[in-house]
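Case study.
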Amino acid sequence: MTEVYVVGVDMIKFGRFPDRTVPSLGAEAALMALDDAGLTLKDMQALYCGNLGEAGAMVGQRVLREIGQTGIPVVNVANACATGATAFREGFAAIKAGMYDVVLCVGVEQMGKGLLGGGGGGAGIPIEGLLGSGTMPSVFAHVGMEHTRKYGTTFEQFAKVSVKNHHHSTLNPKAMYQIETPLQEVMGAEMISYPNTKLMCSVNVDGSAAAVLVSESAAKRLGLMSRAVRVRASAMTSDPYTPRNLVMPDFNAVTRLAAKDAYEQAGLGPEDVNLVELHDCFATAEIVHYENLGLCADGEGGRLIDTGETALGGRVPVNVSGGLLSKGHPLGATGIANIYEVTTHLRGEAGKRQVEGAKIGLTHVVGMGSACAIHVLEKVN
Amino acid sequence: MPETETAKPLPVVPFLKIPEGGEPYLEGYKCGHCGEIFLGQRLVCAACGTRGQMQAVKLADKGKLYNFTVVHRNFPGVPVPFISAIVDLDGGGTVKGNLVDMVPSPEAIKFDMPVNVVFRDAGRKDKDGNSYLAYFFTPAT
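After joint prediction, the assembly is written out as follows.
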């Protein structure tokens, strides 16, 4: 099978654009990614479009109405917070299968403010707050508290994740926020669901990101190898059965299964990874994913944040983009925005937040329900 | 006006059973092949995939606190703070619910603390005015 390369990738600056539409946001990123590759829509053989909020409304086709209706096949993808990564993976798979050799992948989301989750349930009355809580901050508070239960991880350690990622975002002009948040400010912010304060919850924003994927022969034919980044692994899992999973979503098992597959596909291990963009939808999540991705041994996640090993300049910088916590989390765009971040570092084009000498990067998203997608990207030149 | 106060409350979720003349309880389904216990009725075991072996079982009204969070922000109309708790029931089955009758403070709540399952009015009615019976956890002393 052919190798698959990212030859164009970009994202818009995440923010709040209530006057825009989902297709117009998606179109903007699509054009930016095409420009980055030096290609046009006429070169694209298929479009894979990820969006959650308007999943029933043909977002990919509406993007093409904004930028050119060439008649190419469009696949619209929805997979919770793994939506963007799933669209990317579908494009990857089609090239691997030899169906196409140049495709466009777009992830886009327009979001309101406020709590997500907590719906569904009872026969005739809402059960949120009656039979526990199913809001996203609560679900991921439970994730963190399970780590606390096992290893004694503290509120302060979880809070340090947010301090780190907010700091990183001050170096990323495309992040929603560029604001330092000292530890006392994070811990003293409004408590949402213990131990997640407001500053430990990802930001609901509007955003879009896009990538152009090509086969090896197309990369050479089009003269695009000089800035190409190789997709060395694309792994996806659904949640395997684990006890309590149906009551308390288990984001650990689904991630571990995907990580194992991704490292096997790539033929390398976590010790070979130079930077990671992982799914820090809440500060509590980042610590458990350190262990799920093998960045440290089980039980060492709290120590990893304490020692600064995951900060820019550390052994394995995590979420140097600012992460979902500060860059923002437009659900359908997040997976491709992660690809943009890692690709930018592998190209050596990340400016002030550049992870020096980065050769291998890993992206991870997990969508509740659950879906996990991990990609391993490799510098070519 | 017709008097409706004597109308039987409805179960808040299908796995809460209110037997005629008996005490309410939570119902699980147990796989005859692997022994895994699930909340509510199902046809196939999600753990091992075995078909036709799921049997209804009455779940215990005691258990241990596996996990919790104290919720301070919720949707309008939901009283906060409250404790969202995940409880492993004695004999099998895991349930999420509110832990009540104690201070909603992380310092006061202990992992593995024994709890009882109690059944009380949900405190919420549907648009037709029906009352609902809900389950809660209380500290077992």
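Observations recorded in class. The mean pLDDT of chain B is 94. Chain B has no helices and ten strands. We will return to this complex in the next lecture.
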